[in-house]
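Worked problem 6 (solution included).
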Amino acid sequence: MNLSDLAAKGAEPAGALLSLAMTGNGEWEERFLRGLDEACRAFALPLLGGDTVALPAGAPRVLGLTAIGRATVPPPSRGGGRAGDALWLVGTLGDAAAGLSLLEADPAAAGPLVEAYRRPQPLLEAGRALAPHATAMMDVSDGLLLDAHRLAQASGCGLSIDLSAIPLSPAFAAARGTDRAARLFAATAGDDYALLAALPPGVEPLTLLQGNPVRIARVGELTKNGVFQLADDLGPVPLPGRLGYEHHPS
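Solution. The predicted structure is:
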């Protein structure tokens, strides 16, 4: 999750700091740290330090990790988009939420959707390729509709999203289908850690990402009218009451 934030700024991971509050006999912490070590090695992320503290038995565990990155170009913010910019999505949507649904039904569930939920993959290389050209960029962690709306609001723009264009993985299509309901599920799901980039007309991301196997699709554009419009191949789509995962619902 931390590395996905770095990817959205076109940054290369430089290190991490871990705050670990331990409780119990340490067995859980040993398993957690083995997993953390595996993740750090996979992304060449050195653990530079941090803090550990012991809590009373039965206290909830508290974990905090800060990833530090290094950018070679000015990092794109959420608020630099302009009307007429195309919105490009890197990655696929809905896999993690579909995987979580499988686990809620069966804790022993396995497969690519469960793996997508348990082991999200930050799109670091794609982020570095797009950052020099993006007017605005962020990762999609709370749902495409909600995060795209946040980007548009920060940029002072309206928003048009083509639901039919959102990329779905073969595993998601096999499990959930590709109709409007399935695409709305994917577009409002969280934990995808895809990238959403606003790119000016004339910038061709397929060329920028040539040789990178990640999926990329043009899913909409920023507009002047300040309105959020959603449509698919069948016509206009009413906005759902829930655009994505709200950390602090009103």
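Discussion: Residues 242 and 249 are 10 Å apart (CA to CA).
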